[in-house]
Design a protein that fits this description.
alpha/beta, 8-stranded mixed beta sheet, two-stranded parallel sheet, 10 strands
């Protein structure tokens, strides 16, 4: 009887592990597919661009050029929703006179393709090159990453010259978070998209701002502190008292980023 119970337990564990492995991206990514155009959300002076990636997908970009002498913000969103859910953020950045480029990752919004870490990084680099083709100097590009997008920003900044990087609720690696959550699974062996920011942050030479809520239960603040400790100078860390993961949508966070950008560029 004991052998049967042990066998049944092993089979159940293997079945659960197999299910988690096959379905892992549905746990990691939560895209929306409305694909609402910017004008329908009250944004003006914005063009919706459809750009081909090197691997043949079509990604959607929202672009508003900078006012004379102002920098451009390339924004990487989190794992939920789509850029249409962040129109208020776009309008805020645009109101500062900044150029703004929002990227809809493949599999999000109206962008084509299946979601993966490699694909998202390809999309991000394509968006960066879009700005370069528009005549925007790397010295005028600031990368802004929200939650999942912090790992995207770090990898782009490790590969390309930029003026500054701002991260909201960053992690050392998504696999580090998953390994704590699913401690009973061999996550480090099974996880496909690990977004190892800790492997790239040392290659980032641009000024860095990290903001993180100390009550964040999605990406614990310890992750942000650890990534900050690994980063090169110049760097700033702002801990938002009582801030949950939703602090990334707080106006105060946005205003500090705007001040950081202006102070870095000028």
């Amino acid at each position: 009887m004991l052998k049967f119970v042990i066998l049944l337990s092993v089979l159940a564990y293997v079945a659960i592990a197999g299910f988690m492995y096959l379905q892992q991206r549905s746990f990691q990514y939560h895209p929306a597919h409305k694909g609402t155009p910017p004008q329908a959300l009250g944004l003006s002076g914005v063009t919706e661009e459809r750009v081909k990636t090197p691997d043949g997908e079509t990604i959607v970009l929202w672009y508003a050029p900078a006012q004379p002498g102002q920098p451009t913000v390339l924004f990487f969103h989190g794992n939920g929703g789509e850029i249409a859910d962040r129109s208020e953020r776009f309008a805020f950045l645009q109101a500062q006179g900044f150029g703004v480029l929002f990227l809809s990752y493949r599999g999000y919004g109206a962008s084509t393709g299946a979601i993966s870490e490699q694909g998202i990084i390809t999309d991000a680099l394509t968006a960066y090159e879009f700005l370069i083709a528009k005549g925007v100097s790397p010295r005028q590009i600031m990368l802004l990453g929200e939650s999942l997008g912090t790992g995207v920003a770090v990898q782009v900044a490790a590969r390309k010259p930029v003026a500054a990087v701002a991260l909201e609720a960053p992690y050392t690696a998504t696999v580090d978070i998953a390994a704590e959550t699913y401690w009973w699974l061999p996550v480090r062996l099974l996880m496909k998209d690990q977004f190892r920011s800790r492997d790239y942050i040392g290659k980032v030479k641009a000024p860095l701002l990290i903001q993180h809520g100390d009550a964040d239960t999605i990406v614990p603040v310890a992750q942000g502190r650890a990534l900050f400790a690994m980063a090169n100078e110049p760097k700033q860390l702002v801990i938002v008292p009582g801030g949950t993961h939703d602090a990334v949508f707080d106006r105060g966070v946005w205003e500090r980023e705007a001040a950081f950008l202006l102070g870095t560029i000028r």
